[in-house]
Every structure is written in C-alpha cells, then in structure tokens.
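Example 699.
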Amino acid sequence: MQTEAPLYDVLNYLPEGILMVDERGVILFANEAFSEMVGYENDILLGLNILSLLADIDVFTACIAKVMNEGKSLDAETDFLHSDGRIIQAIKSVRMIRHNEHIRFFVNIRNLSDINRLNKELRLSKELIEYQAHELSTLLNSKNQELEEILGSIDEVIWYIDNQTLSLRYVNNAVEGVFGFTKETFLADHSLWQQQIYPDDRELVKMFFETLRPGQSQEIRFRILRNDGESRWLNSRIHHHPTLKLFIGITSDITSSKTQSDEIAFLAYHDPLTLLPNRAKLKRQLENRFEHSSSTPFALLFLDLDNFKNINDTMGHEVGDKILIEVSRRILATAGEHDFCARFGGDEFVVLLQDTDISHVNMFAERMIQMFKRPFRVKEIDFFLSTSIGIVLYPQDAQNGEDLIKHADTAMYEAKNKGKNQFVYYHSSMQRAIHNFLYIESLVRDGLRQNLFELYFQPLIDSKTLRLEGYEALMRLPHPTEGFVSPDIFITVAETNGDILLIGEVVLRQACDFITSVRQLCSQPFFVAINISSKQLHQMHFAQDLLDYLKERDIPPSFLKVELTESAVMENIDIAAVQLNKLKEGGVRIALDDFGTGYSSFAYLAQLPIDTLKIDKSFILTLFEVNSNRHIVEAMSNLAHVLGMSVTAEGVEESEHFDFLIQNKIDTLQGYHLSRPLPRNVILQKLQNSDPYFTPLPV
Ligand code: C2E
Ligand code: CA
Ligand code: CA
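Predicted structure in complex with calcium ion:
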C-alpha cells in the first residue's frame, strides 16, 4: 500500500482533534475526532470560523497573536462550545505554518475530560502535547505532501502497521526522538519496532493487537528500548481500521521522573477509566494461576453490556464513561474479595470466580444479571442496561488463557443470540467461528456474490380490525451449516465494513419485487417496511435514489415504509431531517424503530416527520415480568398519539401481550403470536389460495 492513500484517514482516526485554520480563523480542515468533540458534522465545520466554536474568544485571539509574534507553538486551555450548548474543556496547542504566501495555523485539541483520567502529573507532562516550532520552509504543492509535512512535524509518533503482519507501513519523524533510530531506518526494516519492545512487554503488545477488533480503539502502555539501551515508557492510542486493514496509532513518550514510574506501571496494567485491572493484567493473573496452582479449578465469566452502543451514540462518551464506572463499581461490589475482576475492553468485563460449585456459579451469574436491573442514573436520567454473560470452567473447558477467553466470548455471543440479558455456559458444540468478524465478512461477501440474501416478510396487523396492514422486510443470510446467520451479527459486520450499502440495494430490489407480486394478487392497500441503517441514511442521495427507484419500478411510494432507529437518526440529526423530509414529501412513510432503547431527546425527534413509533420488543417481551413496562408502553402510546403518530408493538409473543396491547390502543401488532417472518413464496402461495397466514383471524 502506498503511503498517500490513508493519510487523510490517519488524521481522521487520530483520537485527538486536529484543525487547520487560516489567519482569519476559517476552518480549512477538521478531523473526525474534532467533529465528534464539538458535535458538528465535518461538512458543516469546513468554512466555519473557529471563533464561533469558542466559549472565550479572547483567549484564542491572544494565543494566535502570540504565536504570530513569536513564531512559536503554544498551548493553552480553551473551552469549546458543543453544538448542544455544552462547554467542552480542552487543551489546544497552536502552531504556525507558512505555506506559500499563506499562513496556516495547525491546532491540536485534546479533550480535557479524557486527559483528566490520566493522573495529574501525566496530564501536565508537556511532552504529551507540546509542539516544537520549526517552520516549514519547503513549498508544499500537493495536499498529501502538506499532510505528510504536518504529520512529520508533530511531536508525537504517528504510525500505521498492517493488521495481519504487523509490519510498519508509515511512521513520522517523531519516532527518532523516542527510539533513537531514524524514520528511514524503521521504514527499511518493517519489524524493527517489534524488536525494540522491552522483552517483558512483548507478549502484552502481541495480545493487544490480537484482541483489538476491527472498528475498536484502545489505549496501551508498554516499554521500549532505545538504540542506546535505555528503556522508555510509551502510551499509544490505537485504532483498528476495518476497511484499510491497518492499526493506526499515536504514541507519546510518557517516561518522566522515577517517582512517576510506579504510577505508570500501575496504569500499564489498569484501565484508566474504571481503575480495574486491564486485559494485560488479566493475562498475567491467569498465567500466575497456571504456574502456581494449576490444579485449582475456577470459573471465568465474560460480560458484555447489551445495547451499550446505543447510549454512547445517543448520549455521548461522557455519559457512557460514567455508566462504565458505575458498572465496574457494581461488579466489584457483587464479587467476593478473592474473585478477580477486569475490564477487558470497551463494554466487556471479565470475572474470575474462585468457587466453581455449579450452584454457586449460577447464583453469582444470576446476581450479575439482577444487579443491572437497578437503573444507572447519570445527569438525572435513568439508563436501563442489561448484560449477556458467557461462562467457561477451568480445567474442563480450556487449559490456557487464550482458549478460556475465546470460549467465554463464544458463550457470551450465544447468550446474545438467545435474546441477551442472560448467561450461557460454554459447550464444545458451539460454533467458535460464528461471530468472528473476518469469517462473517466472508459469508456476507459470498452471500452478495452468489445472491444468497433473501428477504423474509413478517405480517403487521391492525389491532382494531385484525386485518393485515403491511409487512416488515427482514433479511436472511443462510449459514453453510447452521441454518441462518443472525441478522444482528451480519448487519453489524456489514455496517462496519460498508457492505450494508450493497445489502440495502438487495433489500430494496427484493421488497419491490414482493410489492409488485402481492399487488397482482390482491387489490387491498398494504405496505412493506424496510430497515435502513445509519450508513444508508447518511448517503447524500439516499432519499432521492429511493424515490427514483420506486418510480422506475412503477410502485406508488405509499407501498413503502422505512424503519430507522433513534441512534441512526441522532448520529446526525440535520442530515437525517433533510432525508426524512424528502422521503415524506415523496409519500414514503417513516417509522422510528426500537423506540425506548435510545436516550435521545424526544423534543428533537418530535420535529421529524415520523408516522409511527415502534416500541422495542424488549418492553413487550417482559410486559408482565417488569412492572414498569406496562406503564412505559402506555405512556409511549399516549405520547405518540398526542403527536399524531401511530404506534406499533413488536415482539408480541403471547396472547396476554396481545390482549393488553389491544386494550391500550396500540395501533399495530407484530410478533410470533401472530406470525413469524415468512419467505416470500409462502406468503404469495397463501394469498393465492386465500389461506390464512396469521392468527388470530380477522374479525
Ligand atoms: P428489528 O428491525 O427490530 O426487527 C425485528 C426483529 O424482531 C426481527 O429479528 C424479528 O424476527 C424479531 N421478532 C419479531 N417478532 C418477534 C417476537 O414475537 N419475539 C421475538 N423474540 N422476536 C420477534 P431479526 O429478523 O433477527 O432481525 C434483527 C435485526 O436485524 C432487526 O431488528 C434489524 O435491526 C436488523 N435487520 C434485519 N433485516 C435487516 C435489513 O434488511 N436491513 C437492515 N439495515 N437491518 C436489518
Ligand atoms: Ca425494524
Ligand atoms: Ca425493532
């Protein structure tokens, strides 16, 4: 791979905000981290004046003036204004670049709330943020060269490596200051960087890369040896880029006085957010056990929070972080003093249980599930979470750390597949590869190439007349040996690697085929609701293309409905609003899916042209188990009706659900009690024969 292509991506995947502004403050470039920090879409930021994003203009103008006068880089604390009005405390450093006749300011911004997590000394350590001032004298003619130069002049080491071979593909000049070897030496020997890792820390680094999933970002601290033999502590924040197949990182030297090295060593083995032991510490803990008490049994529980991404997407990382801290507190409080708890990654936790008596392990797992039932309160809002847990037993299920984790992870996915919010013990018959990203990706690609994707249709029933209103289109992908791959799993993979756009085309084509066939069989109006993922919605021409396609197929837009989740809409509410208004004007109806699982402001959502709220099935499935659910469903229904929206309930599995929902004026019902999703031909056949294909029958 050439070094040019991913340079923009490198800037975009740096976990810190990067801006380039001209001498008037107009933003010429902003990376994604900055967009996220201030809550504006990148397109909107470009051309905007940085002053409009600052809480205190004076500090910034003084800073620019100083940089211009003294020609140096400078850093200062600045408050930025988030699009929602919040103030973001940040440290920025400004550095002046003369480019041809132009003056450009390169601004690097770190969110202070992130940094506060590290200890104070580290935060203040200048090395982390300071930029040396040396002017760019070369004329920069291409954008890439310009970026290359910018990266070259940053103090922190920026690099990327191949995600399979770990061989170095790019590194900037700063590497010399840290390692003592020049950038050229590193690029000539692609594995030199690995050889320079401190021997004790090699395993830690190796495991880090093995377990960092595509799309995830994580932080790691480890030691390296300089060319003069001296050891240094490094802190790296690394992103696993799913499509470029690279690990992209930014690394700083955090070695400082001796007194700090203990703290740094602590942080190397602990998660800075929750202060729980991290993955590396877990590995050591397991190794110690195998070495010193290999005959003592134990149980390993692997927890993954359900729907946590929803909270992060709709409420931002700050709220997500607070919840993670509270989760770790509750886990610690539930575990015994001899049990070991670690944060494995994003929203994943591991507990090692001493007591392996099955009834005790069951009880413990049940307590874990229960402790999530209490709401997590952040900023006056109650968040409802649940967790899926995979359990492995040592020595029965696996004899080494790597297999234990792998099997526990497999069992955890099984728990998710079975409907989340439960625990599952590992069994050797479970398909290990079933959730492996690359494996699922290959199934998706084969499916697209060989036309294996098939839409199923689940009836939606009018609760007053018990007549059919329409169908929800649900995608099915056959698995070579296991029936079907769960859409929750293949859709997630396809959303990460972009294949969702191709799947979306197949959905639309097959949905239109189905509409055309049904119209030929019966004259009553109906609609087909298709699920739209956020990637599709944020395509510039999404709405127009969809309307054009309907026209081409000669299908009136009233036969189509789209279902979108809150988080897809909230990802960029402005773009979503434009697309939704266009669809609505075109005559396509809109449903808000999985309602109640996100935490977006309803005031925002109410401004969108939404026809239907679909109450998430988690409320319906536990309607009679969780008391508050009945009130919530009632409230949601009233709210929707006041706003002129209709309400659909999905997950209607039991006749009691059905009765309750009818009494509470839910307009439309969907669920196994009425009908499972069915293949197109089954429906067409029944329509042709006028056979009933859902229960109970229309009145
Ligand atoms: P969703 O949009 O919330 O779809 C409803 C899910 O609930 C479907 O699962 C459906 O089979 C299931 N369901 C319906 N009635 C019941 C019931 O009574 N009880 C229970 N327990 N479940 C019921 P499915 O087909 O596995 O799809 C899962 C998710 O995958 C969907 O959730 C949707 O988010 C996504 N998905 C499926 N097809 C597509 C697609 O074509 N495009 C996109 N972007 N996403 C899709
Ligand atoms: Ca749906
Ligand atoms: Ca849904």
